Amino acid sequence: MKNITVIGSGTMGNGIAHVFAQNGYAVNLVDISKEALEKGIATITRNLDRMITKEHITESQKSSTLNHIKTTTDLKSGVKNADLVIEAASENIDVKLNIFKELDAVCGTDTILATNTSSISITQIAAVTNRPEKVIGMHFMNPVPIMKLVEIIRGFSTSDETTKTIMDLSLKLEKTPTEVNDYPGFVANRILMPMINEAIETLHHGVAGVSEIDTVMKLGMAHPMGPLQLADFIGLDVCLSILNVMYEGFKNPKYAPSPLLVNMVTAGKLGVKSAEGFYDYSQSKKAETVSNQFSKR
Ligand code: NAI
Questions:
Q1: In what order do the strands lie in the sheet with 3-7?
Q2: Tens of pLDDT, residues 128-175
Q3: How far is the CA of 206 from the centre of ligand 1 (A)?
Q4: pTM exceeding 0.85
Q5: Relative to the CA of 89, which ligand 1 atom is closest?
Q6: Does residue 189 carry a catalytic annotation?
Q7: Strand-pair category, 135-140 with 149-154
Q8: Is any atom of ligand 1 closer than 6 Å to the C-beta of 87?
Q9: Please, how many CA atoms are within 13 Å of residue 79, restricted to the half-sphere of its CB?
Q10: Which domains does the chain have, with CATH numbers?
Q11: Is the CB of 271 under 6 A from ligand 1?
Q12: Which helix (H) or strand (E) holds 33?
């Protein structure tokens, strides 16, 4: 494996591109939006600068990492020679199915097609291709350069060979791959999202305010970040779509998204990416609680 293509240059895509490039792989980063590509490279550059400040990497490692990344808005040329494509586009089933149909048509027959989806069925994505045995979930965690886990999800038809290749590759990135099967939410989000949703419902019912809920979970449960702040970092739209996938996939009301979460997403309060979620990110990098008025909305 030498040539990696990453589709989507948002929160996750630029992190995935960064990690592969830093480990010496040639990366093509593809997005439909030129602005997203520019933003992605700016984010990678900023994160590399931070790593230099912390003396984790040198200036020359920074420039070699950046030199390993090429960007394009043209999917066909972006996947030319790709040994592996990792799709990290928006969490929307139609977007992903269209991308995989196109990837299957334009990629070499040996190319492995992976998705970073948080919750959408790998089996369903694989079914729109003619190579379901070469389709796999490669679920990185946010922020990708820092988080060690890669949840490796086997679709119904994913082969042992594909799984082994992707497990070995993850180890080369100094990550810890963990193999799971393909059911809604997989393992990570099946456990995490009900907790986040319950934190939002706790706020919605006025049991406590934003900072109180997060403090209880940080100091009481030794979580590094409270669930509401974590939701802001993941993106409230992403949280909502994951909960909807589990709600529909299991036909179980326990996964029904909190009405407050639905309202916030509808109002465009998506967390860090829109500068406002449960906290306000517009003024300073230090998150300030927006208000404790959510329960009244
Ligand atoms: P994002 O909204 O930050 O970025 C998505 C990017 O995909 C945007 O730049 C958009 O222009 C691009 N895009 C949309 N359609 C495209 C297409 N047809 N071709 C190429 N690019 C396209 O989303 P984010 O948060 O990076 O999520 C990406 C994937 O990663 C989703 O499947 C999400 O569920 C998953 N994920 C997200 C995590 C998070 O913490 N945000 C954590 C783990 C997985």
A1: 69-72, 26-30, 3-7, 84-87, 112-115, 135-140, 149-154, 176-181
A2: 999 999 999 999 998 999 999 999 999 999 999 999 999 999 999 999
A3: 32
A4: yes
A5: 7
A6: yes
A7: antiparallel
A8: no
A9: 24
A10: 3-181 (3.40.50.720), 189-294 (1.10.1040.10)
A11: no
A12: none
